[in-house]
Amino acid sequence: MDWSLIAVLAIAGGFLLWRQSKNAERAEAAKDRLARDNHLYQAIKAGMREYHWRERDHDFWKAKNGEKLFETAHLAAFRIDHFAESRVGFYFKDLDEHGLYSAFAGNGDELIESYYRTDGTFQQEGVLLHDD
User: Which residue, of 10, 31, 59, 99, has the fewest CB within 10 Å?
Assistant: First the structure.
């Protein structure tokens, strides 16, 4: 029996098992991120429904950058200035996360909406991966 061939096969098999476990770890991390991003995305959408409902009785566009627009038991909404977009920042108390909604009026009736994971300053823009 050629022991060198067995050793090479054992090393190659070990390497393949190691690569498979790394791929499984990456897949699990991607799955976890998608679940977290979907959850935050849905929370931002719910926050915007609350924003639009309250907007009927308030002049939110008069608020200063970073000013709290309203607060509920689950979230706080803030006005965020931007040169080209309408933006609303959220802090979700139950998630302990910050989210950012932005809308850009495109050509004609086109409205381009974006959803981000952000920090407490609302300066970072981490694009959310979501199923919608």
Answer: 59
